[in-house]
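Target protein
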Amino acid sequence: MESTKVKNGQILIAEPFMWDSNFKRSVILLCDHNEEGSLGFILNKPLDMRIDELIADFPEFEAPVFFGGPVQTDTVHYIHSVGDLLEGSAKISPGVYWGGDFEKLKVLIRSQLILPKDIRFFVGYSGWSEGQLKEELTEGSWVISEMHANYVFRSNPDELWTEAMTHKGDAFTVIAQMPDYINWN
């Protein structure tokens, strides 16, 4: 079944009637998907804080922090566009990298070689155990789509769910126009 073929670098778009407040109208970038489970970050749930307010020894840096998901909310992760500068980064999709050397990251920020437009920080992550994501896909909880670097670095988080659903095309364009609550229609 095509709808359950998942790979790193794709996005999961929440179906419009998902009630789980963690994932309602969310767009998740899958960074690690294998037989043992899956891990990703919600791209469109900004928190009201900056990374330099969250981490004490972090250089002054006006980069927002996003809610990555409900798993291990005491951890910080980052997605960026500068994999060629940051050792240890994992390429997720064209122009999108995950992680890398944290101390080198701080040096690159202090030297202004990484700017807020180049990186997104996340508190926690979204995770699925073995077979769990496949089951949720079979149930229709998620729509799989291709990732565009603009989703992370250029899109307005408040509009990302609609944008990603519209880019999927066909019937998804109609779904993208559905109100948040059907009784509002």
